[in-house]
UniProtKB/TrEMBL annotation:
SUPFAM superfamilies: Metalloproteases ('zincins'), catalytic domain. PROSITE patterns: PEPTIDASE_M2. Keywords: Disulfide bond, Glycoprotein, Signal. The keyword Thylakoid does not apply. This is M2 family metallopeptidase. InterPro entries: Peptidase_M2. It holds the Pfam family Peptidase_M2. Residues 1-21 form the signal peptide. The keyword Disulfide bond applies.
Length: 599
């Protein structure tokens, strides 16, 4: 580790040799030598950092937190140093590959530390503590100690509004102690981002999309305008059904929806309350939760089924080490981070999943999704280190979502023997409504998470007004409200993992757009003539071949060019969403007649 840090100093001297010392402009050859050396050093360090993070996430102790923080700090120092040096080659006429590597070096860290002694170690300690505080969070409810998993089960299944409110508020007591650490970490990353030439951390994040940061922000707003009318239609319908269920005292028929009534801790997906909002005139003939249990599925069997899906597209089987090293269930003997994630520990072939899967439809979807990350990681593993990533971070999520979408189609469930026959068109509305409760309900949440952080990073929102700004955005975009007044010390944003763990979130909003574009492109390639929601990719090696051609490119070129390889398009387009859900949107419009929609 020390040798790597010394190497960073050495490369600076190499890059700015005699010519540079005399004030001469660096040559293209010097720029390439610098980029190659920086890439090699970062690659050499990445496996150590990844293994440290894996151990901390799957075995949370004071010692593993210390180890992860130490590795993270050293990686941050190394990467920040190279990012600052890369800026010195701006304007040098380098080849396209070197130019992209220099750009990616400047964007390498999402949370850069300031370039001063002790700052990287302080930031790494804060981040490890925030992640672990979230992951080990518990609260008391009716004499029992509940984890987030326990709370999620109650929110999904209970229909007692008093219990829902108590459990929702219980989990949100975990986050106030994180507020000071979060504010300090945000200040440090902002200082680091400014040192790299960005206005703030939000501008750094928005620069990662092969377009101007302000243009990217405008692009997200454009995408939202494409799908917002559909979301408002869904919101209006769901609110009316919640009012039918609970009455005006709990959920008024106008105004925002009470967040704890949506079946999800963050109200980001509403599929768990399908029983409350199900159509009265059309019923679904099957329950995927019950089908999985009836067929003897386990977390391992669900994962094997996910692997079989990718194998049917022509992808090679998972390596033996995947099954030996993955964490698929919550261990009984230690604290772990249950939030599902996919890893390639050595950036070559050590792919793994970390999750606490349960046998239900949500996790059946999640298995297919997380494996999408693994297959993507393996597809671009032959790229140079700096290009080992998705075309943009939304692509990584979208590939998994594409598989997850197929995993829920009745066609696929029939193909793998979970469903005896594919239901007729009379079940399209129930199916699409279930899908929309997760996919469409998510869109404004996926958008507002980073809009909140952009405001924090820019200074528009200070620490004293974190919670107020959070609920203002949730009201504006989602039409949601908390179940009751929030305490003065509430820090509700950090009740969401990605805030506590400083993971950029706009990728998910983008992914939910891309996945429908990918679905439309794949079904078109197959010559599919039916509705998009009945198109399963299972068994289509021609689709897998074209998909893999996109995945192998990694982050070697602008994402617009990579999107074109697969779909023929060069712009993110929400119209694929409206096309997929067109029958449902028409049905919702009919159901909402006489309602006062909006909030």
């Amino acid at each position: 580790m020390r040798s790597l840090l010394l190497a960073a100093t050495a490369v600076a001297l190499l890059a700015f040799g005699p010519a540079a010392a005399q004030g001469a402009k660096p040559t293209p050859a010097e720029a390439k030598a610098f980029a190659d050396k920086a890439e090699a050093d970062l690659a050499a360090f990445s496996e150590y950092a990844a293994r440290s993070s894996w151990v901390r996430a799957t075995y949370i102790t004071e010692d593993t937190q210390w180890l992860e923080a130490k590795a993270s700090a050293e990686q941050n120092v190394l990467a920040t140093g190279y990012a600052k040096q890369a800026a010195k080659y701006d304007g040098v006429a380098v080849d396209p590959v070197t130019a992209r590597k220099l750009k990616l070096l400047k964007l390498f860290l999402t949370s850069p530390a300031p370039d001063r002694p002790g700052a990287a170690a302080e930031l790494a300690g804060l981040q490890s503590r925030l992640d672990s505080t979230y992951s080990t969070g518990k609260f008391q409810h009716q004499g029992k100690t509940l984890t987030l998993n326990d709370a999620e089960d109650i929110l999904a299944k209970s229909r007692d509004p008093a219990e829902l409110k108590a459990v929702w508020e219980g989990w949100h007591t975990v986050s106030p102690p994180m507020k000071a650490d979060y504010a300090r970490a945000a200040a440090l990353t902002n200082e680091g981002a400014k040192g790299l030439g960005f206005a703030d951390t939000g501008a750094l994040w928005r620069s990662n999309y092969d377009m101007d940061p302000d243009a990217f922000a405008a692009e997200t707003d454009r995408l939202w305008t494409q799908v917002e009318p559909f979301y408002r239609n869904l919101h209006c319908y769901v609110r009316a059904r919640l009012n039918d269920k609970y009455g005006d005292a709990v959920q008024p028929r106008t105004g925002p929806i009470r967040a704890d009534l949506t079946g999800n801790m963050w109200a980001q997906t509403w599929g768990n309350i399908y029983d409350v909002v199900a159509p009265k005139t059309a019923a679904s003939s099957y329950d995927l939760d019950k089908l999985l249990v009836a067929h003897g599925y386990t977390p391992v069997k669900m994962t094997q089924t996910g692997e079989a899906f990718y194998s049917s597209l022509g992808f090679a089987p998972l390596p033996k080490t995947f099954w030996e090293r993955s964490m698929l269930e919550r261990p009984r003997d230690r604290e772990v981070t249950c939030h599902a994630s996919a890893w390639n520990v050595n950036d070559r072939d050590d792919i793994r999943i970390k999750a606490c899967f349960k046998v239900n439809a949500d996790d059946f979807y999640t298995v297919h999704h997380e494996l999408g990350h693994n297959y993507y990681q393996r597809a671009y593993s032959a790229q140079p280190y700096l290009f080992k990533g998705s075309a943009n971070d939304g692509f990584h999520e979208a590939v998994g979502d594409l598989a997850g979408m197929s995993a829920l189609t009745p066609t696929y469930l029939n193909q793998i023997g979970l469903l005896e026959k594919v239901p007729g068109a009379e079940e399209d509305i129930p199916y699409l409504l279930k899908m929309a409760l997760d996919k469409i309900a998510f869109l404004p949440f996926g958008l507002m998470i980073d809009k909140w952080r952009w405001q924090v990073f820019s200074g528009q929102v200070d620490e004293a007004h974190y919670n107020e700004a959070w609920w203002k955005l949730r009201g504006q975009y989602q039409g949601l409200a908390p179940p009751g007044p929030r305490p003065a010390d509430a820090f509700d944003p950090a009740a969401k993992y990605h805030i506590a763990a400083s993971v950029p979130y706009m990728r998910y909003f983008l992914a939910f757009n891309y996945e429908f574009q990918f679905q439309r492109a794949a079904c078109k390639q197959m010559g599919w003539k039916g509705p998009l929601h009945r198109c399963s990719l299972y068994g289509r090696k021609d689709v897998g071949e074209k998909l893999n051609a996109m995945l192998e490119l990694g982050n070697s070129q602008p994402w617009q060019e990579t999107l074109k390889v697969y779909s023929g398009e060069t712009r993110t387009d929400g119209s694929a969403i409206t096309e997929y859900f067109k029958p449902l949107n028409g049905w919702l419009t009919q159901q909402n007649k006489g309602e006062r929609c909006g909030w």
